[in-house]
Write a structure and sequence with these properties.
The chain is mainly alpha-helical. It is built from four helices and no strands.
Length: about 80
């Protein structure tokens, strides 16, 4: 599941696999949500569901640290 979520981030933001994993890990740490639960949220997002607010906010911050000017719901 984590590998699929990494793939979603790679496809959506053009980051490396290592950067995508770091982003998932940061979101997990900053929201106190288990990594596999963050990954589940990412996969649901890829299928059109909204991200839970804390996950979305932290993901946006993680993306901004790597790709200034890009938000998580704006695929590349």
């Amino acid at each position: 599941m984590v590998d699929r979520a990494i793939g979603v981030l790679i496809a959506a933001h053009g980051v490396s696999p290592a950067a995508a994993f770091e982003m998932l890990h940061e979101v997990s740490q900053h929201t106190n949500i288990k990594l596999h639960s963050v990954a589940e949220s990412m996969l649901a997002w890829a299928l059109g569901q909204p991200l839970p607010q804390p996950v979305g906010q932290e993901l946006e911050a993680a993306v901004q640290r790597r790709i200034p000017g890009e938000a998580p719901d704006e695929p590349r």
